[in-house]
Write the structure tokens for this entry.
Amino acid sequence: MALVGYINSQTPGHILNYSESFFGGNLITFPNVKPPPVDKIQCMVCRKTMDFIMQLYCPIGDSKYHRTLYIFVCINGPCQSSGNNWKVLRSQYFIKFDQNSQSKPCTNWSAEYENDSSDGESWGQDADKSSEIQCKVENLNEQSSSLIGRFQCYSIDIYEDTTITTTSNITNHDDDDIEVKSSSPSIKHFLSKWSEKVLIDKEFIEEDDNTGPEAFSDELLSYITNRGEYGCEDIRYCWSGQPIFNGLPPSDLANYSTCHRCGSERVFELQLFSTINNSLKLSTLLNEDYDGVNVSWLLNIVTVLIFTCRDSCWSQTADDWVEECVIVQTDKNVTNIICPS
């Protein structure tokens, strides 16, 4: 079962720490870890430093590491048109959780979410956007560092997704043979399950007058319009599950199916939808000009999909920041794979 996240308009006034997930605000590192260097978060189009947009605390099962994803974007107009304006960095931190459950992080995007019976969690936000955060870490003497962001900060509500999503209902087929369950192990697996019938349907989609260059695909529209009373989520998390593409997966996705570091398979982890634009606001503390930016709808995306190493490979002595594989699908029918080599 997937988890879905909705950005909350509330901004609780507590100081964030590294084990929280939030939208906008200031990036918070693990203890004794410096913010990512400029070359790690440099836009590949304009070469300017990208903006921090989201921090998601995503521990994997019984891993011995804390694990967080940090998401960056360049909102300059020409960069967005290219679809080459996103980056996702992973950072991990070795720690043995205290057996006292009160000391454990109570909110996360965890791979073992089936046992989470909560109705939803509100994650914290930056209480003071004008200054650098020094996050106090429980039971440790070290402190985290911060990277000041340009967006207003909001919490995120998390829920279990009670809607079962399969390839067959996304693509409007009734053939059980093309169903891909949420336990799909890898990119290669779900690509192999994408049947020839789906490829044939592409011809009909291309002939449809309603699927112009700025339109969502029929498949994604079907998904969005059947999301219930709260509408489409902002964030969808489904570790090793089925991504929801705008149309067909990129034809060359199989070329990026293995981790560039350890050779393990890559798996789908999460995706963002364009609905995040409803909550994405530039900080009122900043007075900066952006090239070709619509401040009321900052991101020209349909969806952004993030894939990660199945083993979440990490060197405790050598790693601080690891780049993940990202697929950007823009509202101009551009699909771009951003993947480290």
In short: Residues 171 and 198 are 7 Å apart (CA to CA). The chain has one domain: 3-95+134-169+183-338. The longest strand covers residues 65-73. The helical segments are 77-82, 167-170, 187-192, 196-207, 218-224.
